[in-house]
TrEMBL record:
Transmembrane segments: 81-103, 115-137, 165-186, 226-246, 252-273, 294-314, 326-347, 359-380, 411-433, 476-500, 520-545
InterPro entries: AB_hydrolase_fold (IPR029058)
Region (Disordered): 680-721
Lineage of the species this protein comes from: Bacteria, Bacillati, Actinomycetota, Actinomycetes, Micromonosporales
UniProt entry keywords in alphabetical sequence: Membrane, Transmembrane, Transmembrane helix
Protein name according to UniProt: Integral membrane protein
Composition skew (Basic and acidic residues), residue ranges: 691-703
Protein's UniProt keywords contain Transmembrane: yes
Organism: Micromonospora sicca
Length: 747
C-alpha cells in the first residue's frame, strides 16, 4: 500500500464525516458530550467506551451533517469509590512520578534527572516503610509494651506486654510487612492486556508525547516494583539488626546486616542503570531485580530468627535502638537528592530564557519537593498521632511522655506548621499584589469586547472583569509552587536536627527567643492540620467520584498526574493513557477507513489525549483527520510543565502532520484552557503567513452583557465549561468538515 492510498477496507459514503468528541476531566456522560438525550454504546466497555446518538431518534447528526460519536474515558483514572480513595493515599507517589516527566527541554537524554527522580521515589517508599516500623516496632512493641502505665487498661496490647522484647518485635513486624503489601495492592489495577490496545502502525519517538500509549511501561514497572520491594525489606531488616546489635553485634548480626546493605546498594545501582531499566524486552536487569527481591525477602527469616532467639540482653533505650537515627538519615538523603536535582536542573537550563527557567526548568525539583514534603508530613502524622493515642493525652515533648515520638518526626510536623503559615502568607501576598494588574488587564479586555455596553450593564461588566482577573491568576501558580517548594525544603532541612537529639522547643527558645509553649502549640496545630489535609483528600476523592462539578476542579490535578506512565514510582496510580491513547488511535484508524474524514474534537484534557493520539496515527490516516480543541491546556499548562515531551515544537509538528486542519477555541474567562499559538484579541495584528497563527479563535465570553429580547437574563459566563451547543463551535465544525471534504476531493 502506498503512502497516498486509503486504509484497507475503506467503504465510506461520499461526503460523510464522523466527529469524535473526547471530554475533559469533568466526567461528563455521553449524553452531555454529544448534546443528545438518547445514546448507545458502539465500542469499548464500562471503563472506556464509544457512544453514538440512537439512529431511530431525530437530530442524530451534528453540524454540517457529521456523524456524532463520543469517547467516554472518565472511569479509567478513577472508577469506583474504593478505587478513588485508594488513589488519594498514593498522592505523594503520584507526584514523584510526575516529576520525572517534567525535566527540562535540552539536547541531552536527561538521564541524570531521571536517576535522581527515581532515587527520590525510592526514598519515599523507604520513608513509608519506616513510618510503619515506627508505629509497630518503636512505639508499640518497644515503648508501650515496655511500660506498665501504657499497657494499663489495654487488653489488646497487654497480652504481649510481658513477653521478651525479641518476641514482641517479631510478632509486630507483621504490621510493616502488611503495610507494604497494602501499598502493592492499591497500586495494582486488574485490566485487559496491554496488547489489546496497541496502536496499529504509528511511530513512537522516545521523549516526545507520542511515546505515551506506544510505550509498554509494564516491564519497567515490574523492575521498579521488584527494586522497591527489595529495598523496603532490606531497610526493615537493617532496622531490626541495628536494634539487635546496638549492645554489641554478634557475627551473625554483622553478616546479615552486610547482606541487607549489599541488597540496598544493588537496588540503588539498578536505579542508576537508566537504559537497561527502561528496556521493553527482558534482560539481565529483570533477573537482577528479581534476585534482589528474593534475597531481601528471604533475609527476613534469619533476621527474625536472630531477633527472637539471640539470648544477648537488649540495651536500655527510650526507643528502638538506632531507629531515630535511621529516620533522620532518610530525611538527610531526601534533602541531598532534592538539592542535587535542583542544581542539575538549573545547570541544564543555564543560559535559557528566564521565564522558561522559572516555569519549566524547575518543574522536576518543585514537584519532587512537594511529593517529599507531603510524604514526610503524612508519615510524621501517622507516628505522632499514634503516640498521642498511646499517651492518652497531647504530646508536649516533655520527659514524662510515656511514648515519645522520634525527634525527626516532631521536627517534620513543627516545620510543616511553619511552612504552611508562610505559604498561606505568601499566597495572600501574591494575590493582593497581583490583583491590581490583573484587574487592569481584565478591564481593558472587557472594554474592547463591549464598547457599546449601556450604563445599566455596569454590574455585569464588573463581574466579567472579575472572572477574567481570577482566570489570569493561573499564570502565578508557578511562582507560588516554587515558594511552597522552597519552604518545604527548609522544613525538611530542619528535620535533620533530629540527628543531634535536639528537642524543637528548647532549641527554638534558646536561639530564637520563641517560647517553648509556642513550639508545643505548633506541634499540636501542625498535627491537626495534617489530619485535616488527609480528611480533605478523602472527602475530595469521594466528591470527585460522585459529583461531576466538583471533579471539574480537583480532577485537573489528578488526571494530569495519572496521565503519565509510571517511570519513577511503581506504586503510583496506574496510567490510564496507556489504554486511552492507543484505544483512541485504533478507533480513529477504523473510522478513517469507514468515513470520508474524521474530525477530532477535544475539550480540556481530552485535547491532550487527542494530541497524543494524533502523533501516533499512520500517514494515510492523518490525511483524513482534522482537530478541534476548546478549553485546551496544551500550551497554558503542558508546554510549561512538560517541555521535554510537549513543547512548542511538538505542537507545530502535530499541526503539520494534519496539514494544519486545526482550530482551537478559547476564552479569557477560562482558568485552565487558553490559546495555543496566538491570542487574537481585538486590536492584535492579523494572522500572518504562518499557518500556526490561524489555529486559535477567541470566543468572547459572555456573548453579551445585556438581556437579549428573547430572554429574561443575560447570557451566562461559560469559563471552562464545554461549548458544544455554542453556534461558534458549530461554525468551527462546519469549517473543518469543509476542509476535510475539500482535501478528500483533492485526492
Amino acid at each position: 500500500m502506498s503512502e497516498e492510498s486509503p486504509p484497507p477496507g475503506r467503504q465510506y459514503v461520499p461526503g460523510e464525516v464522523v466527529e469524535l468528541r473526547v471530554h475533559g476531566v469533568s466526567g461528563a456522560g455521553a449524553e452531555q458530550v454529544l448534546d443528545r438525550p438518547h445514546v448507545h454504546q458502539v465500542a469499548g466497555d464500562r471503563s472506556g467506551g464509544f457512544f453514538r446518538p440512537r439512529p431511530d431518534y431525530p437530530d442524530s447528526t451534528g453540524p454540517g451533517g457529521v456523524v456524532l460519536e463520543a469517547y467516554r474515558w472518565s472511569d479509567l483514572p478513577s472508577g469506583t469509590a474504593a478505587r478513588t480513595l485508594s488513589l488519594v493515599f498514593l498522592l505523594p507517589f503520584m507526584l514523584s512520578n510526575v516529576a520525572i516527566w517534567m525535566r527540562p527541554a535540552d539536547r541531552g537524554s536527561g538521564s541524570g534527572v531521571k536517576v535522581l527522580c527515581r532515587l527520590i521515589a525510592l526514598n519515599l517508599t523507604l520513608v513509608y516503610v519506616l513510618s510503619a516500623v515506627g508505629v509497630a516496632l518503636d512505639l508499640i512493641a518497644w515503648k508501650c509494651m515496655g511500660s506498665p502505665r501504657c499497657l494499663e487498661g489495654r487488653a489488646w496490647l497487654s497480652w504481649l506486654g510481658g513477653r521478651p522484647v525479641g518476641l514482641r518485635l517479631v510478632v509486630l513486624v507483621v504490621l510493616p510487612v502488611a503495610a507494604l503489601g497494602l501499598l502493592w495492592m492499591l497500586s495494582v489495577r486488574p485490566g485487559r492486556p496491554y496488547e489489546a490496545f496497541r496502536t496499529p502502525g504509528g511511530d513512537p519517538e522516545g521523549d516526545r508525547l507520542s511515546a505515551v500509549g506506544q510505550w509498554d511501561a509494564m516491564p519497567m514497572v515490574g523492575r521498579l516494583r521488584a527494586i522497591h520491594v527489595a529495598a523496603a525489606f532490606a531497610v526493615l531488616n537493617l532496622t531490626l539488626l541495628a536494634a539487635r546489635g546496638a549492645g554489641g553485634p554478634s557475627p551473625v548480626v554483622i553478616v546479615l546486616a552486610a547482606v541487607a546493605g549489599a541488597v540496598l546498594a544493588a537496588c540503588l545501582a539498578l536505579l542508576c542503570a537508566g537504559a537497561s531499566l527502561e528496556r521493553a524486552s527482558t534482560g539481565p536487569t529483570d533477573r537482577l531485580a528479581a534476585t534482589a527481591r528474593v534475597v531481601a525477602c528471604a533475609l527476613t527469616v534469619p533476621t527474625l530468627g536472630v531477633v527472637a532467639l539471640d539470648g544477648a540482653p537488649w540495651p536500655h533505650s527510650t526507643g528502638l535502638p538506632g531507629y531515630s537515627q535511621i529516620v533522620a538519615w532518610a530525611f538527610v538523603a531526601q534533602m541531598t537528592l532534592l538539592f542535587a536535582l535542583a542544581v542539575l536542573t538549573l545547570w541544564r537550563r543555564r543560559g535559557r530564557d528566564p521565564r522558561q527557567a522559572l516555569l519549566r526548568g524547575l518543574g522536576a525539583p518543585v514537584i519532587a519537593t512537594a511529593a517529599v514534603g507531603l510524604a514526610s508530613a503524612l508519615s510524621a502524622e501517622l507516628v505522632y498521632r499514634t503516640a498521642y493515642f498511646l499517651n492518652r493525652r497531647a504530646i508536649t515533648g516533655s520527659a514524662g511522655d510515656l511514648v515519645p515520638p522520634p525527634l525527626a518526626y516532631k521536627w517534620a510536623i513543627f516545620t510543616f506548621f511553619l511552612a504552611s503559615i508562610a505559604a498561606v502568607a505568601a499566597g495572600g501576598a501574591v494575590t493582593l499584589l497581583t490583583r491590581p494588574g490583573r484587574r487592569r488587564a481584565a478591564a481593558a479586555i472587557v472594554a474592547r469586547d463591549f464598547p457599546d455596553a449601556p450604563p445599566e450593564a455596569a454590574d455585569r461588566l464588573d463581574r466579567v472583569a472579575r472572572t477574567i482577573a481570577r482566570a489570569r491568576f493561573t499564570e502565578w501558580l508557578g511562582p507560588l509552587a516554587m515558594v511552597f517548594a522552597g519552604l518545604a525544603a527548609v522544613g525538611l532541612a530542619a528535620s535533620v536536627l533530629g540527628l543531634f537529639e535536639h528537642q524543637p522547643g528548647p532549641l527554638v527558645e534558646r536561639f530564637l527567643g520563641v517560647p517553648a509553649e509556642f513550639v508545643n502549640f505548633g506541634l499540636t496545630f501542625g498535627s491537626y492540620l495534617i489530619a485535616g489535609i488527609i480528611a480533605g483528600l478523602v472527602v475530595g476523592g469521594l466528591f470527585a467520584y460522585r459529583t461531576a462539578e466538583f471533579r471539574r476542579y480537583v480532577g485537573v490535578v489528578w488526571d494530569l498526574g495519572t496521565f503519565w506512565p509510571r517511570a519513577a514510582h511503581p506504586f503510583a496510580p496506574p496510567c490510564y493513557a496507556e489504554r486511552a491513547v492507543p484505544e483512541l488511535a485504533k478507533r480513529i484508524c477504523y473510522l478513517a477507513g469507514q468515513h470520508e474524514g474524521v474530525l477530532l474534537t477535544g475539550h480540556s484534557h481530552g485535547s491532550v489525549l487527542l494530541a497524543a493520539a494524533v502523533l501516533q496515527l499512520p500517514a494515510p490516516v492523518r490525511r483524513r483527520v482534522a482537530l478541534l480543541t476548546y478549553g485546551s491546556p496544551l500550551d497554558r499548562l503542558y508546554t510549561r510543565l512538560f517541555p521535554a515531551y510537549l513543547g512548542r515544537d511538538v505542537l507545530r509538528e502535530m499541526g503539520a502532520r494534519i496539514d494544519w486542519r486545526w482550530v482551537n477555541l478559547w476564552r479569557d474567562t477560562d482558568q485552565i484552557g487558553g490559546w495555543v499559538f496566538a491570542a487574537h484579541r481585538p486590536g492584535d495584528p492579523p494572522p500572518g503567513a504562518d499557518p500556526s497563527e490561524r489555529v486559535d479563535r477567541r470566543l468572547r465570553d459572555p456573548e453579551d452583557v445585556v438581556v437579549p429580547p428573547s430572554d429574561s437574563v443575560p447570557p451566562p459566563i461559560r469559563g471552562h465549561w464545554p461549548c458544544e451547543s455554542d453556534e461558534r463551535f458549530a461554525a468551527a465544525v462546519r469549517d473543518l468538515v469543509g476542509r476535510l471534504r475539500e482535501a478528500d476531493r483533492g485526492r
